[in-house]
From TrEMBL, chains A, B:
Residues 198-255 form the CBS domain. Keywords: CBS domain, Magnesium, Membrane, Transmembrane, Transmembrane helix, Transport. It is a multi-pass membrane protein. The chain crosses the membrane at residues 280-300, 306-333, 354-376, 382-407, 419-442. Coiled coil: none annotated. This is Magnesium transporter MgtE.
Length: 443, 443
């Protein structure tokens, strides 16, 4: 295989692999790739690999691991090993892993830190995981707005940080007042004051801004890092393109996973009982909705006994509604996320979705009706399923618009829970329409 | 409402709104926000708003619009208006909108361009939409590797491009040989040759690299832009953090939309017939799978006639399998995307998923069995559903691992088609297990 992670996994899962061979393979790989490979081998084998990794590389790899995988590994280590591991952790790394560390471990790590890093950490933890204040780094160039260009250039020459081509200027009380571009300084005279070259309208982020919103703002601003300020306009740090890219990557993963009730921190080899528990909750919610649907089918037991073909066909009606409704729901959820849905266009949207649903409902119900008439040699049964499909697809369009809008008003994320509610509605509506019409027309 | 886009939508949907009022509202907003608002009003009203927008702002707004919305608008314009619109389009903008333009319109735009931009365009279109060669910009600083620091600094002072803190160096044949950081130049003497300061191992991208992979590489490299090279190591352009953030944002949208068979270019107010056609295909695919499932239920008509409770309960068995299978599928799809799944760990993974499935299957089937025994006063029916659920959840775990791996081997994206195939399998397996056991044990 040409993929280096796959090659490392193959190597690590071999029996009797030597410490030297592991170290050699790992030495040339970036820590995030090693972390991925470590997460790809069964939990029981990880400890041996971990012990083979050089002490100096361990922390970087640990930081790159997923929450659950990290916790599984840390549980295996004793207090001495953990203290050694955290001997030179910085605030940024500790913030990234804090959520999967028990408090005593965090205390050990904090004791090892210098005062400045400890302050950064304490400031960082005051923000939520999805607030940009938690995502900052502190390698920013800060200077008093009173300095001259020559002094500013001296600072620029010395910095070793990535994404650094702006200097953050503060006033006497330490409040951020604006930024100056390196390029501006290059075109200025050494004795000029930077305050005269400063961009006062340079964009900034409030520390409590959602990190995905912050990534949007960074993208729009076309700079590689933005200052992050607290409510007093004091600098919390900066949010750079690398972190913004990471935030979007993790967000996409989280959305994908949460669609099936999974946690994005899940380990590929999470212990069986742990996995079963976390997934079981979602199965339970689904079970409740399935029982609800069954209860409605139960109302029509007498009909089903007489026309068993209804039982054969009822999943078709439910599933067509579910698919059509999910399409509308997805479109509306995207519109809500982009701020496109307002009172002003909601009615037009609903009308349009009902029209689309109506058209598709008619087209497909004619085909389904024809197939069913022929299959069961009963034009009346064909009519029943055709009508039920039209009704359910219209119901799906209506629910697909209304459910996410209502959830949004209730401050519940429609991307997470919209789909479960919608399919429950379309299942039940489908069964009632189909079995109800069957009772009326076929008995 | 505090959201500026929502406010603009409210304004634009008012009756008798004046051109002046529209222009005033739009003037302070970035083009992407105006584009979003324009996409949020019914198609019939857009032409009037468009005509109110100043000629100089129109192209920027058009570029920011979604493919379908853009096409709907362009269809309304006459040839003269289109020629005017494209009077100063550049290669980058034209590449972004080319897919929604008919060829004659592209020809008009190409005629308006200068020779350099036309070359950029022609090079860009040789790459696919998802290849990074199509995503480059050309505002890069290029110089011969033979120049001195003083000359390089002069070039740096003059550039107005964002994300510019590296210079791209080429040899006599025009091939890229490496980069030099602005910071390195700042710390060098004016008479030094840049070739001695150059980083030869500066990371670069091949133009045919997938743009999402390119964004990963940019994130890892911790620089704000990477050079993009063709197969001869000639510079195609550069890929910067702004484009990488955009690529990830659009990718996430596309994945979300495609889960329900929608195109990410879809307009919120797409014309009814157009919408119905594009969504109808997905409904049709789903209909086929639903008919397949019904055909299997049909095999058990005789059983259903005698034990109608089976008809009432069968959706529960199918849906529990679907949910459990989707959880496994999602985990495996993520693992495949990250390169974590190899021959070496596939068997361990399958074993673990079967164990999780088995455990959850037993726990939930006991509860379901108990509820059903009580509901229908039939312990035997409870036993039938409990067994069927265990079987279907195990089947789901097996399919959840095997389906994406096989699709991946066949070069079919498992994130797109895995879910439809999986739920078809779990539906059919669920019906067969439940109705089959019912036939054996209850008749």
């Amino acid at each position: 295989m040409s993929n280096p992670i796959a090659e490392l996994i193959e190597l690590l899962t071999q029996e009797n692999i030597s410490t030297t061979a592991i170290n050699q393979a790992i030495s040339s790989m970036p820590p995030d790739d090693v972390a991925l490979a470590l997460e790809s081998i069964p939990v029981a084998q990880r400890r041996f690999v971990w012990d083979s990794i050089k002490q100096t590389n361990r922390l970087d790899i640990l930081v790159e691991m997923r929450g659950e995988s990290r916790l599984l590994l840390l549980k295996e280590l004793n207090e001495f090993e953990i203290a050694e591991l955290f001997s030179d952790v910085d605030a940024e790394d500790l913030l990234e892993i804090a959520d999967s560390l028990p408090d005593p471990m965090i205390d050990i790590a904090l004791q090892k830190m210098d005062a400045k890093q400890r302050d950064y950490y304490r400031q960082g933890v005051t923000y939520e995981e999805d607030e940009v204040g938690r995502w900052v780094d502190h390698e920013l160039l800060v200077a008093a707005q009173s300095i001259r260009v020559s002094e500013a250039m001296r600072l620029f020459r010395r910095t070793t940080a990535s994404y650094s081509n702006t200097m953050y200027l503060v006033n006497r009380t330490g409040r951020w007042v604006g930024c100056v571009h390196l390029k501006t300084l290059l075109n200025a005279q050494p004795h000029e004051h930077v305050s005269e070259l400063m961009e006062e309208d340079f964009p900034f982020l409030e520390a409590q801004t959602d990190v995905i919103k912050a990534a949007d703002l960074l993208e729009k601003s076309e700079v590689s890092a933005l200052p992050v300020l607290d409510e007093n306009h004091l600098l919390v740090g900066r949010f750079h393109a690398g972190h913004a890219l990471e935030a979007r990557r993790l967000e996409q993963e989280a959305v994908q996973m949460s669609n099936t009730g999974l946690d994005e921190d899940s380990d590929l080899f999470s212990p069986v009982r742990r996995s079963a528990t976390s997934r079981g909750l979602w199965l339970g919610i689904n079970l409740l909705t399935a029982f609800m649907a069954s209860a409605f089918i139960g109302l029509f037991e007498a009909t089903l006994e007489q026309v068993v073909a209804l039982a054969v066909l009822m999943p078709i009606v439910a599933s067509m509604g579910g698919i059509a409704g999910s399409q509308t729901l997805t479109l509306i959820v995207r519109g809500l996320a982009l701020g496109q849905i307002t009172r002003a266009n909601l009615v037009s949207l609903l009308k349009k979705e009902l029209q689309v649903g109506g058209l598709n409902g008619i087209v497909w119900s004619l085909s389904i009706g024809a197939v069913v008439s022929w299959w069961f040699q009963s034009p009346l049964l064909g009519l029943v399923i055709a009508l039920a499909i039209v009704i359910n697809i219209l119901m799906a369009a209506l629910s697909g618009v209304i459910i996410p809008v209502v959830l949004d008003k209730l401050k519940i994320d429609p991307a997470l829970s919209g789909s479960v509610i919608l399919t429950t509605v379309t299942d039940i509506a489908g069964y009632i329409a189909f079995l109800g019409l069957g009772t009326l027309l076929l008995l």
